[in-house]
Specification:
Strand order of the largest sheet: 4-3-2-1-5
Shape: rod-shaped
Number of helices: 6
Distance between the termini: 43 Å
Number of strands: 5
Radius of gyration: 27 Å
Structural class: alpha+beta
Length: 227
């Protein structure tokens, strides 16, 4: 038996909430594994002389001294591998959340931007592992943040404008309005776009929310006998 539409929406919301919880758990798990692994590696192989090696590790001194010169590279590989998993997990959570409030294209774009920002942070961490100058590591992170900022500028402006329009409600469903030179009936009010249906019913017009906020909106009045 088919579920009612309301029940289907409830099931989808619950599935997305569960997906967010799983993503949060995976992210925390990866971070904990990374921190613990780095600590263990540093404790086991972070000794440069036989005299410095603790007595409990003395039987393995030859292995420790052999691995020690490559410790930085091992740590770098570990940071990159688990960092990559963390970035993918976080971007997946962002995508799942954004799909609750906007359409697929916008959610996918924000997921891509989240990944770029995450990889910028990962590059800065890699630089710190290799003991690169702090200023250089900061420059790498700043450059990544700058790229992400430019990439998100339009999306964020539309999102903020969409929230403002949803709160202020200068129009509602079924209103006939003219905005940005386009006339139509308000069909959908989305976070990123206003969807108008042309008065002749032949097409839909999508106007970015940021554009709507900066334009004069002409709203058609009903004749007095129709009020």
């Amino acid at each position: 038996m088919a579920l009612p539409a309301e029940n289907k929406r409830t099931v989808k919301v619950e599935e997305k909430i569960q997906s967010l919880r799983r993503g949060s758990f995976k992210t925390m798990f990866y971070i904990v594994v990374l921190v613990v692994s780095l600590f263990v590696l540093n404790f086991l192989f972070g000794w440069t002389t036989v005299e410095a090696i603790p007595s409990i590790l003395q039987p393995f001194s030859s292995i420790i001294l052999f691995v020690n010169p490559y410790l930085t590279y091992i740590q770098a590989v570990l940071v990159f591998a688990l960092g990559y998993l963390v970035v993918n997990s976080v971007s997946g959570m962002v995508y799942t959340y954004m799909r609750r409030i906007t359409e697929y294209a916008n959610a996918a774009t924000i997921r891509t931007i989240t990944r770029l920002s995450g990889f910028a942070v990962l590059l800065a961490l890699m630089a710190s592992v290799f003991h690169v100058d702090a200023a250089a590591a900061l420059t790498i992170g700043s450059f990544g943040g700058l790229v992400a900022g430019f990439a998100t500028q339009t999306i964020l402006s539309n999102a903020v404008a969409g929230v403002f329009l949803l709160i202020s409600r200068p129009y509602t469903f079924g209103d006939t309005i003219t905005v940005a030179g386009q006339t139509g009936v308000v069909k959908e009010i989305k976070l990123m776009h206003l969807v108008l249906e042309a008065t002749d019913g032949t097409k839909e017009i999508l106007i970015p929310s940021g554009t709507v906020v900066t334009q004069i909106i002409q709203k058609m009045k009903l004749p007095k006998n129709e009020k």
